[in-house]
Amino acid sequence: MSGASKSKKPMHIVLGGTFDPVHFGHLRMTQEMLNRFPYAKVALMPAAYPPHRPQPGATPQQRIEMLELVLGKYPQLSVDTRELRRKDPSYSVVTLREIRQEFNEAGTGDECLVFLMGTDAFAKLNEWYEWQELIKLTNILVVGRPSSELPKDGAVAEFYQQHAIDKLEELPRYSCGKVGYCQMPQLDISSTYIREQINQGFSPRFLLPDGILDYMNQHGLYGLNPKS
Ligand code: ATP
Ligand code: MG
Q: Whose CA is nearest to atom 13 of ligand 1?
């Protein structure tokens, strides 16, 4: 597939993650994207846990429900549940191929696809299954995250150099093939920290939407006492 064109394409941004639970770090990223690319659609795509990762506190269905709870009222934001519905391991490259296939079937095969991730995830991209294939299917946009930065050397740094886009605002002209870095205020929030706070008996309030905290309380997630 050829990446570039003169005109801007419909833009689909995908943020993959475990969202266990979703928090303001994730949510602010979506708004920062819409501020830069006002016509984009942003999908949050919860992943199945890989076998080697500690299993989550919330079930796949609960992670979906928390995302739907917070995203439901924003038409440009959505939840893509395909990876949790799939029986096989949820490799991103398989998912992205599937999304491209759907664009092709809809007759819009060259849409601008953007895979969004924090610097912590990007730094380990070379551990992903068929990672070199990803860029043939999508663009990648990296967002700064506290305690991690863009790799300075090694395979991922070379990959970045090779595919770096000059001007971020040009991204909607490319269906795939470009990597960009996006500056935005960094929020030092993680799902791990939220789970740890609860584990230590502290409230995670103001790190995530109140509605999500209410849901967590109601369902007794992460060791909270269920409320009726
Ligand atoms: P955990 O601590 O359980 O790993 P997390 O907070 O890292 O959870 P994930 O669901 O793993 O959240 O993250 C999904 C994606 O969002 C990753 O690409 C990650 O880098 C990015 N991300 C999460 N939180 C932030 C944040 N505060 N700032 C920038 N990127 C973030
Ligand atoms: Mg993470």
A: 17
What's the gap in Å between 9 CA and the centre of ligand 1? 27
**Is the separation of the CB atoms in 217 and 228 below 8 Å?**
no
pLDDT, tens digit, 9 for 90 and up, residues 167-192? 999 999 999 999 999 999 999 999 99
Range of the domain at 19: 11-217
Which of 13, 14, 15, 18 has the most ligand 1 atoms within 8 A of CB, as the residue to mutate?
A: 18
CATH number at residue 122: 3.40.50.620
The residue with tokens 């790799």 is 151
Pairwise CA distance, residues 181 & 151, whole Å: 12
| Ligand 1 binding site (Cβ under 6 Å of any ligand atom) | 15, 17-20, 25-26, 29, 117-118, 120-121, 143, 145, 187, 189-192
Q: Is the pTM of this model over 0.90?
A: yes
Instruction: Please report whether residue 5 resides in a domain.
Output: no
- Count of domains observed in the chain: 1
Instruction: Look at residue 4 and tell me if it is in a domain.
Output: no
Alpha carbon distance, N-terminus to C-terminus of the chain: 53
Q: Is the CB of residue 116 less than 8 Å from the CB of residue 33?
A: yes
- Number of Cβ atoms within 10 Å of the Cβ of 18: 17
Distance between Cα 121 and ligand 2 center (Å): 7
Residue 128 lies in a domain: yes
Residue 130 lies in a domain: yes
